[in-house]
Amino acid sequence: MAKYKIKNGVGIIPNGTTEIENFAFERCNELTSINIPESVTKVGYHAFYKCEALTSINIPESVTWIDNGAFFNCKALTSINIPKSVKWIGGYAFKGCEALTSINIPKSVKMFGDSAFKGCKALASINIPESVTWIDNGAFSGCTALTSINIPESVTWIGNLAFSGCTALTSINIPESVTEIGAGAFEGCKALTSIKIPYSVTEIGYSAFDGCKTLTSIIVAEENKVYDSRGNCNAIIETKTNRLIQGCTNTVIPESVTEIGEYAFEGRKILTSINIPNSVTKIGGRAFSECEGLTSVNIPNSVTEICDEAFSDCHSLTSINIPNSVTKIGYHAFNECKVLTSITIPNSVTWIGEYAFFGCEKLTSINIPNSVTEIGFDAFCGCKALTSITIPESVTKIGKGAFDECESLKEIILFQTDPSKIKVSDLFGLGLPKAQITLYVPKESVIAYQEHWFWSNMFWSKCAAIKPITDDML
Question: What CA–CA distance (Å, rounded) separates 309 from 299?
Answer without folding.
Answer: 15
